[in-house]
């Protein structure tokens, strides 16, 4: 079993930065691809970013150049640094662990992840 716990969310103004953390317990994460997703009210859960075990990274177009995903294997933690936040970034942010047996190209698909955290709220005011 793996438990994922997100932290670092909050209420900020447009243009501010936040760093989200996703701490894992129960199992190490260093061999897994990890992802960040977000869900705004009334919308479907959306892929934000992913990082492979070899630190290859992927981003949805809307956050490229603003968000950075990283991992610290020694701390069993994954981060999402969010710069130049916009009101449209407002959502609950979730981290997730990608299934071992899944297509390497399925990183944007929520169904490719098997463990999820409870989420952390990010609210960006204009």
Describe the structure.
With 126 residues, the chain is an all-beta fold. It has strands at 3-7, 10-13, 18-25, 34-39, 46-51, 57-59, 67-72, 77-82, 91-98, 113-116, 120-125. Strands 2, 4, 5, 6, 9, 10 and 11 form a 7-stranded mixed β-sheet that branches. A 4-stranded antiparallel β-sheet has the order 1-3-8-7, with no helix packed on it. The protein starts with a strand and ends with a strand.
SSE map:
Blueprint: E1 3-7, E2 10-13, E3 18-25, E4 34-39, E5 46-51, E6 57-59, E7 67-72, E8 77-82, E9 91-98, E10 113-116, E11 120-125
Parallel strand pairs: 2-11
Antiparallel strand pairs: 1-3, 3-8, 4-5, 4-9, 5-6, 7-8, 9-10, 9-11
| SS field, number of helical segments | 0
- Major sheet description: 7 strands, mixed
What oligomeric state do the depicted chains represent?
Answer: single chain
Distance between the termini: 40 Å
Shape call: globular
Overall SS class = mainly beta
Q: What is the percentage of strand-forming residues?
A: over 45%
Supply Rg.
13 Å
Total beta-strand segments: 11
State the share of residues found in helices, binned by percent: under 10%
Summarize model confidence as the mean pLDDT: 95
Uncertain runs with pLDDT below 50, 5 residues or more?
A: none
Order of helices and strands: EEEEEEEEEEE
